[in-house]
Design brief:
The complex is a heterodimer of chains A (about 350) and B (about 400). By secondary structure, chain A is an alpha/beta fold. Helices cover about 35% and strands about 25% of the residues of chain A. In chain A, β2 and β3 form a beta hairpin. Chain A is globular. In chain B, strands 5-4-6-7-1-8-14-13-9-10 form a ten-stranded mixed β-sheet, sandwiched between helices. A two-stranded antiparallel ribbon of chain B has the order 2-3. A two-stranded antiparallel sheet of chain B has the order 11-12. The chains are: A alpha/beta (about 350), B alpha/beta (about 400).
Chain lengths: ~350, ~400
């Protein structure tokens, strides 16, 4: 299916990743063919030479009052911080606007599982005396989006999507629809992930350490989507336009051509592409490599994560010239698959 | 969504502690037969409450082969069973191109019941069965439903805790109403786990007795588990293929309270705004709403807030619009609660009654509306609202009609 949009603009974006704060450090490393990946400590690496994209320089207290930050899981801290940076980039002061008209739709990967594991470890080791009630509220996957909404006062639509490597893209579609439907004037969208050593143990146990989990990353990428009229009224700088979002859940044997028609109708030789999730391994998307020879891939720089699409979209957008077309492609191994068409900043 | 195509419900399926299919669940709903009973899914001896609404006498091999039983989490299994029932009733398979049929799922703890067994072994240094981890993420159920039934269109998994599956139904209806999908299988699944049982116990919000929403002396929730799904199609498509139309999803609204991770805004103002927005989006007015299927958890605060929200929406008429909770029947099924309650609402609308709120202990002066504590009542209502509130302040209201 495909939704075409006429009135949705992007007025801000930001990211926190292993490369640092904001999109620029990541883009610099990407351009310089550098990587922010670091070795996984041997106590977690199961005897393998693994890399990960840990955001080692991220300090929650730089963004959130320490007492509040203490109550949040790491994924929520990323989401609160990146949302604040994106709002600032968009020049939006929520207090000056109707908070009911500003919402958030966020993709989340393993968010909540770190707290779940810690909470359960307390129970397994200490029984009910070992339970920590402070951990439990942030065991839910919507903790990052909800904490961001609480900290920034976003009272509009609030959704979290978990859809494997297309979690952020799933949230992006819903954010666009919230604006298109008139449910909100502004939607923050993107994805948040956090790393934990237990993930590596889990991937090792299921035999997926090399296939999908090598060089896992963490962080949060957030874009500020806005109705064009709303953006125009406040004279916001338009950093991009959303043209359409296409998706299929599964690429069915015998129906590949139809999937290609849905997903790749916007592909042309002059479109700048980005590949996210497992898109580079998806047969349908491999042709992109011939028609768009140097697709952007942030994975070698900051690692791969389930909700990396928010950061990948921000990077793609930051490289587009005025009116230049961009096509973001994302896949999960068993589906879904997404194609998001953007246009570089122009006046509307 | 009012100006768009009407979204018809052509199939429903359910699998929960109060009934393992629609006929059994309907009987429980009509008779007020609760599924809340002593739990035996895992060791609960250390906890003050021993009750919950567990799916009892469940043998996965009655539904799945050996390989599938190992591969699928309890949540995956429940989801596939309920979605399958809905699809069979709808007669949908084969009706449309596979890319025109999507899956919209709401989830909670997903495969935590199995995954926490892996974690326990891992912490003890004991090798555990790797397949216990396969359902750790909620999107696994979505993909499994899509693969099993050949649904190649939209796949989305909403994870807003206890409002997940009502949002999934609203969102699924939107995909259909806009014509982007010819049909969507929408609903939710969630199961009991040590994580959620211990978690809610740690917050001291589990009632040692069966939950008693809106009653004096209520102490909290009774947890439950299950899955429920609806098949959604445009009305004209359903008519064209002679499908039986069971009812309609008229609209929905969602918002975040931006107040607190676990406590609701005491004013109920956001809940009231969401209910009003949903009613407005549905093209009906408040006077056409026959009753509300409340979130109605049975926690002291939730029930007062929801009652307050009712007064903000319906004003002087609030006491004439019954606010009932079916959680005394099903327990609080968390990520599946919204879908189970949406199905319960539709069944009640179709059968001309408003369900009883079970386990009355006495009238709470702060809950001073009509809750049908004394029994279900006959009703010719066409339209009802189903509310879902969640951790994080996520609120969803869904408007359904028969």
């Amino acid at each position: 299916m495909r939704y075409d949009f006429q009135n949705i603009v992007i007025t801000g974006y930001s990211s926190l990743s292993a490369a640092g704060k904001g999109i620029d450090p990541l883009l610099h490393m990407l351009t310089a063919n550098e990587s922010a990946l670091t070795p996984v400590p041997t106590e977690y690496s199961h005897g393998r030479d693994l890399l990960w994209g840990r955001s080692i320089n991220f300090k929650a207290s730089d963004f959130i009052p320490p007492l509040k930050a203490r109550k949040m899981d790491r994924c929520s801290q990323f989401a609160v911080a990146a949302s604040g940076l994106a709002l600032k980039d968009a020049g939006l002061d929520v207090k000056q606007l109707q908070p009911e008209r500003i919402g958030i739709a966020l993709g989340c990967g393993f968010g909540g599982l770190a707290n779940s594991a810690e909470f359960l470890e307390g129970y397994f080791s200490g029984g009910i005396e070992g339970l920590s009630p402070m951990l439990f509220p942030n065991t839910v996957a919507n903790a990052p989006a909800s904490n961001a909404s609480i900290e920034h006062g976003l009272k509009g639509p609030n959704v979290t999507m978990v859809q494997r490597f297309c979690s952020a893209e799933s949230a992006f579609l819903m954010a666009c629809r919230c604006i298109e439907e008139g449910r909100a004037d502004v939607m923050l969208t993107g994805g948040a992930d956090s790393l934990m050593p237990l993930m590596i143990a889990g991937f090792a146990a299921t035999g997926q350490l090399n296939r999908y989990a090598a060089a896992f990353g963490e962080g949060c990428g957030v874009l500020v989507l806005e109705h064009a009229k709303h953006a125009a009224c406040r004279h916001a700088r338009i950093k991009g336009l959303v043209s359409n979002v296409a998706t299929v859940g599964l690429i069915m044997p015998g129906y590949e051509a139809e999937a290609e028609q849905i997903l790749l109708s916007e592909l042309s030789n002059d479109v700048r592409c980005s590949l996210s999730g497992t898109a580079a391994q998806t047969a349908l998307f491999r042709q992109v490599l011939t028609r768009s020879p140097s697709p952007l891939r942030i994975e070698p720089v900051v690692g791969r994560s389930l909700a990396m699409g928010g950061t990948a979209l921000g990077v793609l957008l930051s490289t587009l010239g005025s009116n230049q077309k961009g096509l973001h492609l994302a896949s999960s191994p068993e589906g879904p698959h997404y194609a998001i068409s953007l246009t570089g900043g122009s006046s509307v | 969504m009012a100006a768009k195509n009407r979204v018809a419900i052509t199939g429903i399926g359910i699998f929960c502690g109060a009934g393992k299919d629609i006929p059994a669940f309907t009987a429980s709903l009509v008779n007020g037969t609760s599924g809340i009973a002593p739990l035996d899914l895992f060791d609960i001896s250390a906890f003050p409450s021993k009750l919950g609404c567990q799916v009892k006498e469940y043998d996965p091999r009655a539904y799945f082969d050996r390989r599938e039983t190992r591969k699928l989490s309890r949540a995956d299994q429940f989801g596939i069973i309920a979605a399958g029932e809905a699809l069979r009733q709808s007669g949908l398979p084969g009706a449309y191109n596979p890319y025109q049929i999507g899956v919209s799922l709401g989830a909670g703890a997903a495969g935590m019941f199995q995954s926490e067994q892996w974690l326990k072994s891992h912490l003890q240094g004991v090798a555990a069965e790797p397949s216990l981890l396969r359902g750790i993420l909620p999107d696994k159920t979505t993909t499994e439903i899509a693969l099993r039934f050949g649904l190649a269109g939209y796949q989305g998994s909403i994870t807003t805790a206890c409002s997940s599956s009502s949002t999934a139904i609203g969102w699924g209806a939107e995909l259909v109403a806009t014509g982007k999908q010819r049909a969507v299988v929408a609903g939710g699944t969630d199961t009991l786990s040590i994580l959620t049982f211990a978690g809610f116990n740690s917050l001291k919000v589990i009632d040692p007795n069966p939950c008693s929403p809106f009653s004096l002396g209520r102490q909290g929730i009774s947890l439950g588990e299950g899955a429920a799904f609806m098949v959604l199609e445009q009305e004209h498509d359903a008519i064209s293929r002679n499908a039986k139309i069971l009812g309609y999803v008229l609209g929905y609204a969602i918002a975040g309270e931006a107040f607190h991770m676990t406590a609701p805004d005491p004013s109920g103002s956001t809940a009231a705004r969401v209910m009003s927005d949903a009613i407005s989006a549905s093209g009906v007015n408040a006077s056409q709403i026959g009753w509300i299927n409340a979130h109605g958890t049975g926690t002291p605060l939730n029930d007062v807030v929801e009652s307050n929200a009712m007064k903000l929406v319906f004003g002087t008429q609030a006491a004439k619009v019954p606010l009932v909770s079916t959680k005394g029947l099903t327990g609080h099924c968390l990520g599946a609660a919204g879908a189970i309650e949406a199905v319960a609402t539709l069944i009640a609308l179709r059968n001309g009654f408003i369900p009883q709120t079970l386990n009355f202990r006495g009238r709470d002066p702060e809950c001073d509306l009509e809750y049908c504590h004394n029994g279900s009542i006959t009703s010719d209502s066409q339209t009802a609202v189903s509310n879902s509130f969640a951790f994080g302040g996520n609120i969803t209201s869904l408007v359904l009609s028969r």
